[in-house]
Amino acid sequence: MIILQITLAIVLARGLSTLYFLLNSINWQKKASSESKLSKNSKTKFYILIPVLREQKRIIATLEYFVKHFRRENIKIIVITTQKEFSKKFNGESTQKLVESFIKNNKYSGYIKVINYPDAKGKMAHQLNYAIDKIKEDSYIAIYNADSRPHFNTFDYVSRSVQKNESEIFQQPAVFTKNYNDLNPFLKISAILQSRWTFAHEIARLLRQSISNNVFFRKYAYAHVVGHGLIIKKSVLESVGKFPTGTMTEDLFLGFLLRSKRYRIFAIPFLEYADSPETVRGSWNQKYIWFWGPMKNISYLQYVAKNKKQLGIESLISPLLFTLEGLLSALAWLISGPLVLMLLASPLITTDLILITISYLVIFIYGPLQYLIFFWNYNNKNYLEMVYILLLSVPVIIFNSIPPYLSIFNELRSKIDKSEIHKPKTDD
Question: What's the pTM?
Answer without folding.
Answer: 0.92
